[in-house]
Design a protein that fits this description.
Helix content: 25-40%
Strand order of the largest sheet: 4-1-5
Largest sheet: 3 strands, parallel
CATH topology: D-Maltodextrin-Binding Protein, domain 2
Number of domains: 1
CATH class: Alpha Beta
Radius of gyration: 15 Å
Shape: globular
Number of strands: 7
Length: 141
Amino acid sequence: MPAAALAVFLAACAATAPATAPGVRAELAPTGTLRVAVFTGNPVLGTRDKASGEVTGTTVTMGRALAARADVPLRIIEYTAIAKLVEDAKTGEWDIAVVAFDPAAAQRRGLRAGAHRRRSHFPGCAGLDDRERGRGRTAPA
C-alpha cells in the first residue's frame, strides 16, 4: 500500500474514531498487548534498519495506530520467513499481520481465495464497511 494511501486511511480512522467498544480491546489484543507480526522479507510490509536494528514499515505503522487507538501496549514480532509467520498463526503467537497475497502461490499450496481471512474488529474506523475497515485479518479461522 503506498504510504500516501496508508496515511489517508489512518487519518480517516482517527478523525472518525469513537471510544473503543467494550470487548474490542480483548478481541484485538487478547493477551493485553497487541502482537504484530511483521514480515521483513517483503520491504513493502516491513524492514529492519541495519543501523538501529529497529523494525519499520507499513505493518509497524498500522500496528502502532491500532495499539494506540485500543490503548494497549505494542509488541512487534519480526518474521524473516513467511512459512514461520503462517505456522505461528496456527498457535496464536501473534494477533495481527499484513501479508501480500499471491494467488499463484496460494494455488500451488492448495489454498482457495479467502481461506486466509478471519473476521476481526478494528477500533476507530466507524462508517467504513467491513472490507474498508480491514476486518479480514490473516490468521486461521
